[in-house]
Amino acid sequence: MARKETITRDILINTAFELLQQEGIEQVTARKLAAKAGCSTQPIFRLYKNMEELQAELYEKMILFFEAYYMQFPVKEDTPFVNLGLAYIHFAEIEKNLFKALFLSSERGGKSLYELLNGTSGSVVKEINKAKALGSSNASELFMKMWIFIHGAACMVITGDYDLSESETMELLKDSYLAYTRK
């Protein structure tokens, strides 16, 4: 009777995801993954052609994780781009290593920053449409201005230079939106 395989792709990708969350994407190596999964490197290379294939699957898991996080983030403000900004900044705070891998890397699983943020639910498009409905004549340009502010704040979270409360952040985002919509 053949020996039952105990290490599966699911086990490896979930373990790689945990390793990423704890130590960062650069620490997701075959040796570290094998040690964390409690196996040798042999099952990794039996199930994946190479580490690049595993990394591609890992990026897909990260993208889905961020999208689920955003979809479950409580709506706290109706002003366009404010809730998106709050969720993004909060994600940077609680998932630093995932944030770095997704939003501060040129890899991104072959997706642009816009594609990652927009996701399959069309999050950015919905916000742009909301701004249009409120009278913005150039909602896409407005998004770009807001995005530079939002991404900058999230990067400041990563470096430890951002210490504003959620309510202060919300006010800053609303003030920025209003400032950018003035003609």
List keywords for this structure.
183 residues; mainly alpha; Arc Repressor Mutant, subunit A; 2 domains; 69% helix; elongated
Notes on the protein architecture:
The protein has 183 residues and is mainly α. It folds into two domains: 1-48, Arc Repressor Mutant, subunit A, CATH 1.10.10; 61-181. It has ten helices and no strands. Helix 5 (82-94) packs antiparallel against helix 10 (166-181). The longest helix has 22 residues, at 51-72. The termini are far apart. The mean pLDDT is 92.
In terms of topology, how is this protein built?
Layout: H1 9-23, H2 30-37, H3 42-47, H4 51-72, H5 82-94, H6 96-103, H7 113-118, H8 123-133, H9 139-159, H10 166-181
Helix pairs in contact: 1-2, 5-6, 5-9, 5-10, 8-9, 9-10
The residue-averaged pLDDT reads: 92
In total, how many domains does the architecture comprise? 2
Q: The biggest beta sheet, please?
A: none
Care to count the β-strands? 0
Radius of gyration: 19 Å
What is the straight-line distance between the termini? 76 Å
Short description:
The protein is built from ten helices and no strands.
